[in-house]
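Sanity check

After download, print the first record. It should look like this:
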Amino acid sequence: MNSRRDFLRQVGGSALTLSLATTTFSEQAYALPADGKQLGVALVGLGSYADRVATAMKDCKLAKLIGGVTGTPTKIDTWSTKFGLDKANFYSYQNFEQLKNNPAIDAVYITLPNSMHHEYVIRAAKMGKHVICEKPMSVTVKEAEEMIAACKKANVKLYIGYRLHFEPYTRELIRLRKSGELGKILHVNTYDGFKIGDPKQWRLKKALAGGGAMMDVGIYCINGARYATGEEPIWVSAEETKTDPVKFKEVDETITWQMGFPSGAIASCVTTYNFNNLERLYVIGEKGYVELSPAFGYGPIKGRTHQGAMSWDTTKMHQTWQMDGLADCILNGKPDPNMTGEEGLKDMKVIEAVYKSIAAGGKKISLV
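Expected C-alpha cells:
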C-alpha cells in the first residue's frame, strides 16, 4: 500500500499509526469478484454534482462510469470526450427506459433536483437497475416509502448518497463512539450552512427543492447527530428565521432545532442559506469528545479529539470512497452501510417533524 494512503492519528504529542482496516474501508478491502466484474454506473442528470462524481470515479477500482442521462444533447459530446465514454451509452429523459437493455449498466445514480428523485428511482427500479439517489432521497416521507417499496419489489439495491459514511474522519468518529472510548454520549452540536448565490437557481424553488437549507444541508446535521449518538431521535423542536423574505419566499433560510434521543442526549442544530463558515460536528461524551470542523463538505475535513489532533489521508475524493464502497456491497456482498433507503427515510421523518414544529410555533413534535 502506498505510504500516502496510510492514515495517521496524532495522540497527545506522539504519533500513533493505525491500521486502515480498523477505521475505514482500505484499498486492500476492495477486491474485484473472481470474474473481474466492475459495477457499471450511469449518472442521471449531468449537472455540477454529477461532474464531481464522474471525476471521482476515475480513481475507482470496483465502480466504472459507463454513461449518463441528460436533457441537454450537447452535453453528450462534452462528457464522452472528458470522461472517455461511448456516446451510445447516453440517454434522454424521454428514452430513459431504453437503458434497461444496456447490460453494461448495472446501477444508476440519480443526481437530479430533489423533487425528481421519486420518479426516476422508481423508473430505474422497474428496469431492474440498482439505484443510488442523492440526498435528500425525496421531498416527503410518503415518496421515500414508495421508493423503498419499488426497489424491494424489483429486488434491487437502493442507496442514498451519504458519502461521509465512507469518509475516514467520519468513520473514525463512529468507531470511537461504538468502541466506548467516548463513554456515554451526552450532547451533540451540529451545524451546516452557507450563503447561497443565484436567487433564480432551482434550490430556491420549492417545486424542485422541496425546501431550503434544511433539505439541502440541514440533512447533514440530522444524519450527523444520528451517527454520532447511534440512536434515533424521539422528539424535535424547531424555529425558522428569515432575513430576506423575497429571496427565500418559497423555501426556508435559517432553521435552529433540537433533537432528543432515548439515552437523554440532546443535539443542538443549525442550518442556513444566509451565511458562511457554519460547518461543525461536536460530540461530547462522558470520557471524551470529537470535533470535526469542517465536518460535512467535500474536504478536507479536519478533526480533533480529547487525545489530540486527527490526521488522515484526504487526497482521495469522498465520492471515490463512496462509489467503490457501494460497488463492494453490490458485487461482493459486503454488509450494507448506513446509506440504504431506510436510512434516508429516517432523515425524511425528522425533516417533516422540523417543518411541523416550525408551523406549530416551535412546539415539540414526537417522533415515536
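If your output differs, re-run the checksum step. Summary of this record's structure: The CA atoms of residues 40 and 105 lie 5 Å apart.
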